[in-house]
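Dear H.,

Thanks for agreeing to be a second pair of eyes. The structure we're designing against is below in token form, covering all 173 positions.
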């Protein structure tokens, strides 16, 4: 009898479930961050999200942030200048080089290095799903360069944006 009373006072066991790893997007899509489907990716969600994400954690001069969307447009414009023969798919690849940040935000590189491989894995899965969604190559693309592997070996969009935009960057930072 005492055993039965003691058991009755025990708290119920909680069922342990995996943590929620998805986000409801403005389009209504439910995007799984750990296993993203190209079917759950909408261009409007990407554009809206990137327009509201600040580069460099908002540590910029001026009354307004410098958004990831602005950065992507600037890098794409620079890629057109640096690689005039870049086809539409190549330009779209450049334009979407930071697209995963519409969901995971823009983390500064030193913090990405601290987090390590898990962050890069999530970022790469999102970028792969985004590339699939828009019919872009999913292998051998280089986020660092922002250009598809088929592009002739030139300095990529990222290095071009750093080198050619020092005056605007220094005016912003």
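And this is the sequence the design step returned. I haven't edited it by hand at all.
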């Amino acid at each position: 009898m005492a055993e039965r009373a003691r058991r009755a006072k025990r708290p119920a066991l909680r069922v342990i479930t995996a943590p929620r790893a998805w986000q409801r997007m403005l389009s209504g899509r439910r995007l799984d961050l750990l296993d993203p489907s190209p079917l759950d990716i909408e261009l409007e969600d990407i554009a809206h999200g990137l327009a509201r994400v600040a580069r460099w954690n908002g540590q910029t001069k001026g009354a307004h942030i410098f958004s990831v969307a602005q950065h992507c447009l600037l890098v794409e414009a620079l890629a057109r200048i640096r690689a005039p023969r870049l086809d539409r798919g190549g330009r779209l690849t450049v334009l979407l080089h930071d697209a995963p940040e519409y969901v995971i935000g823009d983390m500064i590189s030193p913090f990405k290095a601290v987090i390590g491989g898990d962050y890069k894995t999530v970022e790469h899965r999102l970028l792969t799903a985004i590339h699939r969604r828009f019919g872009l190559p999913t292998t051998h693309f280089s986020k660092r360069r922002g250009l598809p592997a088929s592009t002739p070996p030139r300095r990529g969009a990222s290095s071009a944006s750093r080198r050619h935009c020092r005056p605007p960057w220094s005016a912003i930072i």
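Two observations from my side: The chain is about 50% helix and 5% strand. The beta strands are 22-24, 30-32.

Warmly,
E.
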